[in-house]
Amino acid sequence: MQAVKAEPNVPFVDLKAQYASIKDEIDAAIAAVIAQSAFVGGPFVKEFEQAFAGYCGAGHCIGVANGTDAIAIALRTLGVGPGDEVITAANSFIATAEAITMAGARVVFVDIDPRTYNIDVTRIEEKITPRTKAVIPVHLYGQPADMDPVRALARRHGLWVVGDAAQAHGSMYKGQPVSGLADITCFSFYPGKNLGAYGDAGAIVTDNPDWAAKARILANHGRMAKYDHSIEGVNSRLDGIQAAVLRAKLRHLEVWTEARRAHAGRYSTMLEGSQVVTPGELDGVRAVYHLYVVRVPAGRRDGLRASLTQAGIETGIHYPIALPYLNAYRYLGHTEEDFPEALRASGEVLSLPMFAELTEQQAGQVAAGIRAFGL
Ligand SMILES: Cc1ncc(COP(=O)(O)O)c(C=O)c1O
Question: Is 271 helix (H, G, I), strand (E, B) or coil?
Fold first, then answer.
């Protein structure tokens, strides 16, 4: 007899629960796109772009095919290309670094601040060379990077700032949306993100109308008018069905974000006095907890994870190998001494279940599971 895999008691994310809560709106949104055959570009894309620009408090939003393309197109928009260097954090999803290479530039990593897991702003300057053109702070796990020092450095050295907000829809830094703090900010709407599509999708957000126009051209084959191409771009357009889904979900994002923040607060209270280190926030930020990441004492992370799995609690690791140590970046020749904090974090971080629909009882089960392991 074939064993049937049981559903976990506490899943890591639960996209089915979210769909169930807004099924009618989603089904109607998708049906409307099909009825109008507005599959690529068109009114649904335009409506979402306007709504998301408004949500970000930004002048322009350009929908693209995914968050990785958003970063690569943003860099190309700013004129970054072959021969240039772009600085980013050693702890992120590979997409951040991959997009730098896609734009033709060289990736330069900086170690992380062990408290926030974001780029260590005190270590950026030593990586700047005459070839450095841009810095990409990543607002990882939904926690804004420390943008004031990043902006000051960028101004001093004449660098562009491209924000990677793939995990940070709605996050704020000192009262401002993170998208207002970079020259261009990039979002991913991968299904599991805080604002997730029903497939791949992404967006570029900026206040600068010239960059907005150039990014839109680059994302659409370098097209000026039908069959008139001034440059070679890429095919990276947002499709109508994704835009309609995103437009419907955007109406709920603030409620979902507040739910995530409440879950995070609850976890942190329940884990007070335990041996796991709960997430630290900079003063004056609104973190949106795409992920709730704890740090587990050295050598005990994998045991804890196995024990939680046994109890029906799903967890994640973001990320098990810091970017400079991936085989993909072996050519950069880094050693373990180069990024000690990113290296240490990769062995100790554990992401607990986090999604808006998480119940208090489920969060309690997770905390109890951690205590039961003796932490
Ligand atoms: C930090 C970060 N940057 C970039 C991306 C790329 O986004 P996408 O998967 O939509 O290409 C992701 C998500 O996957 C991400 O988490």
Answer: coil
Which residue has the CA at smallest separation from atom 7 of ligand 1?
Answer: 67
Binding-site residues, ligand 1, Cβ < 6 A: 66-68, 92-93, 95-96, 138, 164, 166-167, 188, 190, 200, 202
| CA–CA separation, 224 and 217 (whole Å) | 7
User: What angle (nearest 5°) sits at the alpha carbon of residue 220, between those of residues 236 and 30?
Assistant: 55
Helix axes 360-372, 253-270, angle to 10 degrees: 30
Say what the pTM is.
0.97
For 362, the 3-state DSSP assignment is: helix
Collapsed DSSP state (helix, strand, coil) of residue 112: strand
- Calculate how far, in angstroms, residue 209's C-alpha sits from the geometric centre of ligand 1: 25
128-164 tens-digit pLDDT: 999 999 999 999 999 999 999 999 999 999 999 999 9
Q: Tell me, what's the pLDDT at 7?
A: 72
Ligand 1, pocket-test mutation among 13, 64, 66, 68, most atoms within 8 A of CB: 68
Residue type at position 331? Y
Q: Which of 230, 222, 182, 175 is closest to 71 using CA atoms?
A: 182
> Ligand 1 centre from 93 Cα, in Å?
6
Measured CA angle at 358 (ends 365, 118), to 5 deg? 95
> How many other C-beta atoms lie within 10 A of the C-beta of residue 43?
14
- CA distances to 138, 144, 174, 215, 245 from 200, rounded to whole Å, are 20, 23, 31, 18, 12
What tens digit of pLDDT does each residue of 283-292 get?
899 999 999 9
Ligand 1 atom at shortest distance from the alpha carbon of 92: 1
Segment 270-276 long-range contacts (CB within 8 Å, at least 24 positions apart): 270/363, 270/364, 270/367, 271/367, 271/370, 274/370, 274/371, 274/375, 275/375, 276/350, 276/370, 276/375
Question: Which amino acid is it at 339?
Answer: F
pLDDT given for residue 4 in this prediction: 55
Look at residue 282 in the predicted model and tell me its pLDDT. 85
